[in-house]
Amino acid sequence: MESIGERILKVRKQKGMSQEQLADLSKINLRTLQRIEKGDNEPRGNTLKQICEVLNINIEELVDYGKIDDRKYLIFLHLSVMTGMIIPLGNIILPAILWLNKRDRIINVDVHGKSILNFQILFTILVNVFLVIGVYGKISHEYYIPSFFYIYYLLIIVALLYPIFIAARINKGNNKKFYPNLIRFVK
Fold first, then answer.
1. How far apart are CA 81 and CA 78, in angstroms?
2. Fewer CB within 10 Å: C terminus or N terminus of the chain?
3. Are 84 and 158 in contact (CB under 8 A)?
4. Of 96, 104, 82, 92, the residue nearest 162 (C-alpha)
5. Measuring CA to CA, which residue among 10, 105, 101, 33 is closest to residue 64?
6. 163 φ, ψ to 5°?
């Protein structure tokens, strides 16, 4: 889990600010800011407020106040996409419900939930396109390319095995984002 100082450092770099600029604009000592970013000191209320005002972010974005670290819920969130094998669109609906329910209460659920939903929406569209093309070709007898069905079945196997792989990685303590975000449907 990132410390407040690491988050401040990350946001400061994203905004393209130097430590000197942030310290001057937030009216705090440069050495204090350096200690905060290293994790040697925790910023006090007024200092944190000034830094957040300069960085133009909410304090809640830096502080996980009241959030708990629940790795089992993250594992369940990732494995919930497998319901798409039983319930149509279950790979989107159940993760969306789980994400909306706990995104503000459990650390990393918001990031992982958005990543899962973006990937699953794109994945569902892609899988159904291959299925429709394969079925249309078979029914119309205009063309029959069995590779469309092979790709479809391969994608289904990946949809079953990849969440298990991710759950095992999270169980070992790895909390990075695992799904590529090619198109962002949920922001």
1. 6
2. C
3. no
4. 82
5. 105
6. -60, -30
Q: How far apart are CA 116 and CA 78, in angstroms?
A: 7
- What pLDDT tens digit does each residue of the chain (187 aa) get? 567 888 899 889 988 999 999 999 999 999 999 999 988 888 888 898 999 999 988 887 777 655 788 899 999 999 999 998 899 999 999 999 999 999 888 888 888 999 999 999 999 998 888 888 888 888 887 776 777 778 888 888 988 899 999 999 999 988 777 887 778 888 8
Identify the residue whose tokens are 């958005």.
114
Chain CA centroid to CA 98, Å: 13
Q: What's the CA gap between 114 and 181, in Å, rounded?
A: 9
**28 within 8 A of 50, measured Cβ to Cβ:** yes
User: Using CA atoms, how far apart are residues 39 and 2, in angstroms rounded to an integer?
Assistant: 10
CA distances from 157 to 76, 84, 129, 142, 171 (A): 19, 12, 17, 28, 22
